[in-house]
Design a protein that fits this description.
The structure holds two protein chains of two kinds. Chain A is α/β, with parallel strands linked by helices. Chain A contains 18 helices and seven strands. In chain B, strand 7 (201-206), helix 7 (215-226) and strand 8 form a beta-alpha-beta unit. The chains are: A alpha/beta, B alpha/beta.
Chain lengths: 388, 374
C-alpha cells in the first residue's frame, strides 16, 4: 500500500493513490528472479526426469496471477508449462487472498472462490476439487460452505489443539459436514524445510534429502501433507543455503522407499477418513497461536476489518468495477497483518514483511485509504441517485 | 557520584536520572555519596547521602549567556571544590569509583580520579551540540571532549548519543556503554483513570522552550491540525528562553486561542498533564533520550516521537516522524484524535511496554559497567 496523506490532493485514479505499484513490481521481480522462475524450472525438470512419479500441487491466488500478467508473463507461462505435464494439481482459494470467509455475509466469499475457479479453468485447464482457504483459515462453518460449493476436500493446519493425540497423516471428517474431507498439514515436517532448513541452532542441521526421506518413510498413516510458502525456495531460504540442491535430490531419495511416493490431494481425496475434527473457532497456519489473531488480534485490526466488511453493500450498489476491484484488493490479509502488535518472535516476522514503521502507522494509512474509498463510493451512489 | 541537580531541586531529565539511579543502586547494596551544589535547604538522612559542596545559582539548562565569564569561573570553582571534597572524604569513605554526569561536573570527575586513583565513569545525557541553539560554546565542548577521553568508561543514554560522541568527539567506541533511562509506571496515573475537564481534545508538548526541542515545529503542526479540526487544544508546558517568541509566533499563526502556555510545571501537575492529554508529541530536533516520552507511555498517552530522539530506538508502540515533516506530524495527531481505537490500543501497549524500562534495569545496566572496573 502506498503512503496516503490527507493533506495531499487526492484526486485521480484511486488505484494509483492507494497502491504502490512501483514497490509491488520491484518485490515481484525480485522474488520471480530468486524463487518463482528457478523453482518452477526445477519442478519441471523433476517431473520430466521421473516420468510422472514426481507430483506437486499449487495453491495460487488470483492476485498473484494478475501480477504475473502485469509484471512478468514469463512466470505465468512457466506455471502453464507445469500444468500441461498432468503431474500438477491446483487448489482453489479466494481470488484476492482475502479473509472474507469470516464476513457475516458469505456472498463475497463465494464470489471470490468462483472467480478463482474460473481462473484455474481458463489458465490451467484444471477444475480443482480440493480447497485451501487464505492462510489455511478454517472453521466447521467454512468447511460446510466449501462443501456446499461442491469441493470434496479442504486443507488446513494439523495443529494439536484440534487433533489431540491423533495424527495429521490421515483424512478427517468435519463436524457438521456430510462428506468433505480435511487434509491436515504436517507442520513439523513442513517447517523442517520452510523454517529450520538453514537454522544453525537446530540439532538436525544440516538437513539433507536422504535424512528427510528417512523421516518420511518412518511416518505412520497413508499420507503426509508437506505444504509451505513457495518463497521457501530461494527467498526465505536463499540459494546459498543449498535449498535448491535439496529440492533436486529429494524425489530420488523419497522414491528409494517402497512405502513412499508422490500423490496430489485430488488423487487422495478418495481415501477413507478415520475420524472427525471439530473446529468451532478459527484455525490457521499463522503464528504460534494458529488462529486468526495475526490479522484480527487487536482492536485496530478488527475495526479495519469491520469497516471493510461494512463497505460491501455500498460497493455492490455502486456497480463500479474499478472500485469493486480496489475493495477486493484491500481485503488482502497482509493489510491487516501489518497492524499486528504482538511483541514476541511472531511480531518480528510481521515487522519483516511490513512496509510500515509501526503497526499504528499501518492502521492510520489503512483507515485513511478506507475512508477515502468510502467517500468515493458515497459520491458514486449520489451520482446514481441524481441520474435516476 | 557527582551531579548537579537532585529532586526537589531539578529542572530536567538529568535530575530524575540521578535520583532514580542512586535509589535503585542503594537497593542493590551500592553505597552512593551524591555531590551537588549547595542549595538553600540543608537535607539530611536521605538515600543517597547528599553532599552539598558550594552554592551556585543556576541550573544546567538555564541561559548561560546571561552569566558571562563569571558563569564558567563559577562552574570551574565548583569542580575544584568538588574534587577536593571527594579527596577529603575518600580517606574515611574509601570510594571504589567516581561517576559523574554531563559536562558541569566533568572536570571534577577527572580531577578526583587523579587525586584518589580510582576509575572514573561519566554519563553523557547530552552534549553541547544538543543544548545550544546559538552555536556551541567551544570552552564547554573542550571540557566534554577532554572528560570523555580521560574517563575509563562513558555511558550514553542511547545509541544515537553513542554515535554522536564517536563521530564528533572521537571517543573510542569500545569504552562506551549504552544505558537507557527508565520510568516507574506505577507512579503515573493512567489516562483512562482520569476525568477530563472538558470535551476539548488535548495535544501536549512538554519540555524546555528551546530550539532543539522543536516547539516551532509543534506549533506549525498545530496550525495544520486546526485547519481540519476545531475541537483541539495544544498545551505547551515548560519554561525557557524561547517562550516569548513562541507566544508571539502562535499569535502570528492565528492559533493563539487554541494554544495554552503553562510555563514550568511542578511534578504533581506534570502527572496530571500526561494523563489528561490525548496525544503527547516529542518533536525534538535533537533529543539524546527523552524521558518525558517514557512518562507519557506510562500514563497510556499515545506518543509521536521525532526520529532524532534516543527513546524512539527502544519502543515500537509509537508513531515516528522526522522533526521537519510537519505534515506527517499533523496527520498523526489527527489520526490519534480521530480514531479512538488507535488511541486506546497504542495507550494500552505503551503501558505494558513502559514496564520494560524500569529504573531498576537502568541501575542493573549501570552496575554492570561498574563491575567492569571494580
Amino acid at each position: 500500500m502506498r503512503r496516503f496523506s490527507i493533506f495531499e490532493e487526492n484526486n485521480g485514479d484511486p488505484y494509483h493513490l492507494y497502491f504502490n505499484q512501483k514497490l509491488n513490481k520491484e518485490v515481484f521481480e525480485k522474488v520471480a528472479r530468486k524463487c518463482y522462475l528457478p523453482t518452477n524450472s526445477i519442478m519441471l525438470d523433476l517431473i520430466n526426469k521421473y516420468d510422472g512419479k514426481f507430483k506437486i500441487s499449487y495453491s495460487i491466488t488470483g492476485v498473484f496471477l494478475d501480477q504475473c500478467n502485469e509484471f512478468n508473463p514469463k512466470v505465468l507461462e512457466s506455471f502453464e508449462e507445469l500444468a500441461k505435464t498432468g503431474c500438477v494439481d491446483f487448489l482453489d482459494e479466494t481470488y484476492y487472498h482475502s479473509l472474507c470467509s469470516l464476513f457475516k455475509d458469505k456472498t463475497e466469499f463465494k464470489e471470490q472462490v468462483a472467480l478463482h475457479n474460473r481462473a484455474m479453468k481458463s489458465l490451467f485447464k484444471h477444475n480443482p476439487v480440493v480447497f485451501r482457504n487464505t492462510e489455511a483459515l478454517f472453521t466447521n462453518e467454512i468447511a460446510k460452505i466449501v462443501e456446499e460449493m461442491g469441493y470434496k476436500g479442504i486443507v488446513t493446519e494439523g495443529w494439536e489443539r484440534i487433533l489431540g493425540w491423533r495424527s495429521p497423516n490421515y483424512l478427517y471428517r468435519v463436524k457438521g459436514c456430510s462428506s468433505i474431507k480435511a487434509f491436515l498439514r504436517n507442520y513439523r515436517l513442513s517447517d523442517d524445510i520452510a523454517y529450520r532448513f538453514s537454522a544453525h541452532w537446530w540439532s538436525e542441521y544440516p538437513l539433507t534429502a536422504d535424512k528427510y526421506a528417512i523421516w518420511l518413510s518412518k511416518c505412520e498413516g497413508p499420507l503426509v501433507n508437506i505444504f509451505m510458502d513457495y518463497e521457501t525456495f530461494g527467498e526465505h531460504q536463499w540459494v546459498e543455503t543449498g535449498i535448491f540442491e535439496f529440492l533436486k535430490r529429494l524425489p530420488e531419495e523419497i522414491l528409494k522407499y517402497e512405502n513412499l511416493n508422490f500423490k496430489t490431494p485430488s488423487e487422495l481425496v478418495s481415501l477413507e477418513p478415520v475420524g472427525e475434527i471439530d473446529v468451532p473457532t478459527p484455525l490457521s497456519w499463522a503464528d504460534m497461536e494458529r488462529d486468526a489473531s495475526a490479522w484480527l488480534g487487536n482492536e485496530m485490526q478488527r475495526v479495519c476489518f469491520r469497516f471493510l466488511e461494512n463497505l460491501e453493500p455500498m460497493v455492490r450498489e455502486a456497480k463500479d468495477e474499478k472500485l469493486m476491484r480496489i475493495w477486493r484488493l484491500l481485503q488482502n490479509s497482509d493489510q491487516l497483518y501489518y497492524l499486528c502488535t504482538k511483541s514476541w518472535a511472531d511480531g518480528d516476522v510481521h515487522k519483516y514483511f511490513s512496509p510500515f514503521d509501526t503497526p499504528y502507522d499501518g492502521f492510520i494509512n489503512f483507515m485513511n485509504v478506507l475512508q477515502d474509498l468510502k467517500n468515493r463510493l458515497k459520491h458514486k451512489l449520489k451520482l446514481h441517485e441524481a441520474g435516476r | 557520584m557527582l551531579g548537579w541537580e537532585f529532586p526537589p531541586f531539578k529542572s530536567g531529565g538529568l535530575g530524575v536520572h540521578c535520583y532514580e539511579l542512586t535509589r535503585a543502586l542503594a537497593s542493590r547494596g551500592v553505597e552512593v555519596d551524591f555531590y551537588m551544589p549547595r542549595t538553600e535547604f540543608e537535607i539530611k538522612g536521605t538515600t543517597p547521602r547528599l553532599i552539598q559542596v558550594m552554592p551556585v545559582y543556576f541550573g544546567p539548562y538555564t541561559a548561560r549567556e546571561a552569566y558571562g565569564w563569571d558563569f564558567m569561573n563559577r562552574v570551574m570553582q565548583y569542580n575544584l571544590r568538588c574534587a577536593e571534597e571527594v579527596e577529603k572524604n575518600h580517606r574515611e569513605r574509601n570510594y571504589d569509583l567516581i561517576h559523574n554526569h554531563d559536562w558541569l561536573t566533568m572536570r571534577a570527575g577527572v580531577l578526583a580520579k587523579q587525586k584518589i586513583k580510582k576509575p572514573h565513569i561519566c554519563t553523557v545525557h547530552s552534549t553541547e551540540y544538543d543544548r545550544s541553539s546559538l552555536g556551541p560554546n567551544h570552552q564547554i565542548l573542550e571540557i566534554e571532549r577532554m572528560g570523555m577521553h580521560a574517563a575509563d568508561r562513558v555511558i550514553t543514554v542511547s545509541n544515537m548519543m553513542k554515535r554522536q560522541i564517536v563521530e564528533k568527539f572521537g571517543v573510542d567506541c569500545g569504552k562506551i556503554r549504552v544505558v537507557y533511562n527508565g520510568v516507574d509506571p506505577d507512579k503515573f496515573r493512567k489516562k483512562w483513570e482520569v476525568r477530563k475537564y472538558s470535551k476539548e481534545k488535548v495535544v501536549l508538548f512538554l519540555g524546555r522552550m528551546a530550539e532543539q526541542k522543536g516547539p516551532v515545529q509543534f506549533l506549525q503542526a498545530a496550525k495544520k491540525v486546526l485547519s481540519v479540526m476545531n475541537n483541539v487544544r495544544f498545551v505547551m508546558a515548560g519554561g525557557g528562553d524561547m517562550l516569548p517568541y513562541l507566544i508571539n509566533y502562535s499569535i502570528e499563526l492565528g492559533i493563539s486561542d487554541k494554544v495554552t502556555f503553562l510555563g514550568y510545571i511542578p511534578e504533581n501537575q506534570l502527572h496530571e498533564a500526561y494523563a489528561k492529554s490525548d496525544v503527547y508529541v516529542l518533536p525534538s530536533i535533537s533529543e539524546p533520550f527523552g524521558i518525558t516520552a517514557l512518562e507519557a507511555m506510562a500514563s497510556g498517552t499515545p506518543i509521536i516521537l521525532s526520529k532524532t530522539s534516543g527513546v524512539s530506538e527502544i519502543t515500537t508502540h509509537c508513531l515516528r516522524v522526522d522533526f521537519w515533516d510537519v505534515n506527517k506530524m499533523a496527520e498523526y495527531i489527527i489520526a490519534l484524535l480521530k480514531y479512538r481505537v488507535l488511541n486506546h490500543t497504542m495507550g494500552r501497549y505503551e503501558v505494558e511496554d513502559a514496564r520494560k524500562f524500569s529504573w531498576g534495569k537502568t541501575a542493573d545496566e549501570t552496575l554492570k559497567v561498574y563491575r567492569e572496573l571494580v
